[in-house]
Amino acid sequence: MAENFSREKPAPEPPRPSVVDELFDLAATRNLDTLLRKALGMVVRIVGAEAGSILLQTQSTHRLRSGAFRQEALNRIDRWEAVISRHLQGTVWTIPAASSNLPLSISNLEGSQLALVNIPLLQDTTVIGALSLVLPPGQALADTQRNLLTRMARGIGQLASLVSDLELAQQRLNQMGVFYQVGQALVTTFDINKLLSDTMQLAADVIDAGAASLMLIDEDRQELVFEVSHGSRSKMLRQQRIPLDEGIAGWVARNGYPVIVNDARTDPRFSHRVDVRTGFLTQSIAAVPLKIKGRIIGVLEVLNKYSGAGFNQEDVRMMSSIAAQAAIALENARLYQQVRQERDHIIKAQEDVRRELARKLHDGPVQLLSAISMNLDHLERLNEVKPEAVHNEINALRNLVRNAMRDARNILFELRPIILETQGLVAALEEYINQLRNAESFTLHFKTVDEVGYDSKVAGTIFSIVQEAINNIKRHANARNVWVLLELKNNRFVVSVRDDGEGFEVDKTTSGYDRRGSFGMLNMRERAELIEAELHIQSRTEAPNRGTSIQLILPLPPPPIPKPNHKLDFPAKKDQSSWLNCLAKNFRNRVWLFSARVNLRQRWKNSTRPCKLPLTSPNKPPKSIMIWASPTNNWAIIPPPIKPWMKL
What we know:
This protein is an alpha+beta fold. The chain folds into four domains: about 20-170, 2-Layer Sandwich (Beta-Lactamase), CATH 3.30.450.40; about 175-335, Beta-Lactamase (2-Layer Sandwich); about 415-555, Heat Shock Protein 90; about 565-648, no CATH class. Helix content is about 50%, strand content about 20%. It has 18 helices and 16 strands. α1 packs antiparallel against α2, α9 (about 315-385) runs antiparallel to α10 and α13 runs antiparallel to α16. The longest helix is centred in the middle third of the chain and has 73 residues, at about 315-385. The protein is rod-shaped and about 145 Å long. It starts with 18 loop residues before the first helix and ends in a 42-residue tail after the last helix.
C-alpha cells in the first residue's frame, strides 16, 4: 500500500521595510530616545556593523547603544564619547556649511582586526553629537556606504535636533500649564494645605520625579518641618522634623543655593534618617530654597527622577519658579490669616466699646434722666398741693440736668475728643485727666511736656492706649493713686501710666485671653504695633512697688517743613540799592524784577518766558514788581493766563 505524505510549505517571512519606509518612520517619531534607537539600529543594519553607539548632547545628554560590543571596542568608544562630550559642553563646535562631506574617521584596534568608524551629528553647522560603529573583521566601507553614512548622519542630527526642540517646547508648555493652574489656585482658594499639596503633585508630574516635599524652617528649634509631601510615603512624612544642619535640604536651607545630586548615596551631605524612618530609597535629589522677601523660610525638593539622565538645570529653573509660587501662596495665606485675626479683634473691640458705652449710658445719663422724669412728675403733683415748695425742687432738678449733661459730655469726650484734632495730644490728655479728677475716687498725678506734633491718627492711637490703661485701673486695680507721665528721652516720646493697685500676673493674664474673653492688654499691644511703638507692661502683686506700670515708647515725629515766607519787609529808604539788597537778602539773588505794569504786560504778551526788567526809577520803589519763588529753590513759575504781577 502506498502512502501519500503531504507537506505544508512554510509561511513566507514578511518583507523587510525599505530604507525609504524606515526614513518615513523616523520622520514621524516624536520621542527622542525612540528616534535615536531606531536610527542607530537602521544604520548598524545598513552598514553591516557589529555594534553601534550614538551620543547626542542638546538640552541634556543622550547615549544609546546597539549590538554586541567587544570590550576593547567599548573602551575606545567610551573614551571618544567622553572627549566629545567635554568638548561640546565647553565650546561651540561648527563645521562650515560649504563642506559637502562630514569628517569620517576610521581606525583599527590594536591586536584586533576590528575597525571603528566615527562621524559627527550636526544641527545645521553645529556639532551636537557623534555616531560610532564597530565593523567586523575584514570589512571596509565602500564609497557608496561612506556617502550613505554621511547623509544618514546629517539626517539623524537634523531630526534629533527638531525632536529635541519639540520635546523642549512641550515641556515648556507643560510648565506654563503648571503656572496657570497654580496661579488659578492662588486666586480661588485660601486653603493653604490643599493648595501646596496640589502644587507639589504638579511639580512632581512636570519634573517627572517620584516624590516632592516642601519643608519649612522652625526658627525656634532650628529644624526643617515636612509641611507638604507628595509620593508613596507622603503620609509618613507629615510634620516630621530633621535638624537644620543635616542632609542636603538642610544644606540648601543654610546656604540658600539650589543643588542637584544625581547619586545621593555618594554625596557626603546626604542623610539616611528619612529613608530609614519611611523605607523610601532616595537615589537622586534636586532642591531649591523657598524665599519670601529675600529671607529663606524653607526648602522645596524633588526625589528620584524617572529618566535615567537625572535632574538638570532646566528642572532647577522649573523648581525655582514653583518655589516662588509656593512662597506667594504662603505669604498670601499668612496675610489672609492676619486680616481675619485683625477683623475678629476689631469686631471684639467694637463689641467691648458697645458694651462699655451701654454700661456708662445706663449707669450715668440714663439713670439721671430717669430721676429727672420722676422729679418732673413729682413737681407736677407738688404744684397742685404745695406750690411754694416747687422752687426748691426746681433747683434740685437743675442739678440733675447738669449732672446728666456732664456725664454725656464725658462719654462723648472718651469716644472721640474733638480737642485731640484741634489742639493736639497733650491738650487732649490734660483735658481727659481733669475730667477724671472730678469723677474718680483715686488721685491722679499728671506731668506733661510741650506738644509733640503727632498727626491725628497717631495721636488718637496714643490717646486710646492711655484710655485703655486707665479703664483697666478703674475696673481691676483698686488703686489709690495713678500717675500719668509724658516725657522726652533720647529723642523718643515716652508715655507712662502707673498705679499703686493690686497688680496681676502678666504672663498668666496674657495666656488666658481666649478663656476670659477680655482683650484689654492685647488691644493695647496691637495699637502700639500699628504706630511702630514699644509697649512694656510690668506688674507686682506684693510690696514693695506693688502695682502696674505701662510704658509706651515711640520715636518723635519728624519736624514740620517750614512754609516759605515770600513776604518782604522793604526798607524805609527809597533808593534802588536798598531795594536790591533787600531782595537779594530774601531770595539769594535769584529774583526776577518787573517794573511797570504796562512794560510787564507788553513783555508777557511777546514772550511766555520771564525776563529781567530794570527798575523804573533809581530813586523810588516801583509801583509793582514780580518775584518768582518756590519752597524748594526760591522760584515759582506763574504760567499764563494767571496775571504775572503782584503788588507789594
